[in-house]
Design goal:
333 residues; alpha+beta; 60s Ribosomal Protein L30, Chain: A; 11 helices; globular
Length: 333
């Protein structure tokens, strides 16, 4: 298999064999869901785990942010973090110190407690890896499976924030040799912080405004993969409008220079929100008031097809990216 997520058919088969008979498991291993949900002591405990495999700098900071996103999109507030830090042979103590500092900094930003984890120097690694586990509490949860035909599909900020930032930070020389100015590369590298890859704020705003049917944060495989995952979890289809999908100018420039499709590029920082049609405008207004850009990019439909309408009105199947565009690029460099 190639680098990146497991092929969807393989993952579905593996998840189908993961039976859980504990009645306290409200949401177990399920395709398209971002976290598990457990009933514990009268509360709902939401838990998720994600590794950081693409980034080499700020890896500890990344681990906190992306795991917090998985908790927030379930309608919970992230609270506790554990980290497994694997370092390559020959790593200096300063590398471990940097990663710990990054984790502490990110936890302070979003009021999360680092409560445990594991560290070791591991044979065979070419670079450090961080595997994070985040937990939070909720009174009720939002599931991808809760999306309904007729729902409006809202996208916050735009795409592909994280992938653009990583390419600018990891492939600056390649970009500049392909005609991308140093100013564009510098601005793109700062996308980690502005618009930012956290979706905790916008997820909480949406849940405090209306009864959200579903949320999903586009990550590996980009927006296209996220739409497919959400619709498959809910058993619906979608029609999205290309002209309403915000793609920042720097992302357009970087993707054009490297021959990448923004729809399939690592997209942490944007959030998909499915709400009833009457709740669309209130959510958009609340997000705007909270300083978060957002737009309705389409709607969910009863049939299982997922299509995209281009600027000329042409309709085509929304492409599938079984491999993230960033992974595809890195495999060729």
């Amino acid at each position: 298999m190639k680098t990146g997520k497991l092929p969807p058919d393989v993952l579905r088969r593996l998840l189908a064999s993961a039976r859980c008979e504990d009645a306290r498991v409200i949401v177990g291993p399920t395709f398209g869901e971002d976290a598990a949900v457990l009933a514990v002591g009268g509360k709902l405990l939401v838990a998720s785990t994600d590794p950081i495999t693409f980034a080499t700098d700020l890896i500890g900071w990344y681990a906190v942010q992306v795991n917090a996103n998985d908790i927030a999109v379930m309608g919970a507030r992230p609270a506790w973090f554990l980290a497994a830090i694997l370092l390559p042979e020959g790593a200096q103590p300063s590398l471990a110190e940097q990663i710990f500092d990054q984790i502490h900094s990110a936890c302070r930003e979003i009021d999360i407690s680092l409560v445990g984890g594991h560290t070791e120097v591991t044979h065979g690694l070419g670079r450090p890896l961080v595997i994070g586990t985040m937990m939070g509490e909720a009174d009720h949860v939002v599931r991808s499976a809760g999306a309904k035909a007729g729902d409006c599909l809202i996208l916050t900020k735009g795409i592909a924030i994280e992938g653009t930032a990583l390419l600018a930070r990891e492939a600056a020389k390649q970009l500049q040799t392909r005609g991308v100015s140093s100013d564009v590369v510098e601005r793109a590298g700062k996308f980690l912080y502005y618009p930012g890859i956290s979706v905790v704020k916008e997820a909480l705003i949406a849940c405090q405004t209306v009864s959200v049917h579903a949320m999903h944060d586009p990550t590996e495989g980009g927006l296209a993969t996220a739409v497919h995952e959400l619709t498959e979890a809910a058993g619906v289809g979608a029609v999205v409008r290309a002209q309403d999908i915000a793609v920042l100018p720097e992302t357009v420039t970087v993707c054009r220079a490297l021959g990448l499709n923004p729809l399939g590029l690592l997209a942490s920082g944007s959030l998909l929100i499915a709400v009833a049609p009457e709740d669309c405008d209130p959510v958009l207004a609340a997000l705007t008031d909270g300083g978060v850009g957002a737009a309705c990019i389409g709607a969910l439909v009863p049939h299982r097809e997922v299509t995209i309408i281009d600027a000329r009105g042409g309709v085509a199947a929304l492409p599938r990216f079984d491999r993230d565009e960033l992974a595809r690029f890195l495999a060729t460099t």
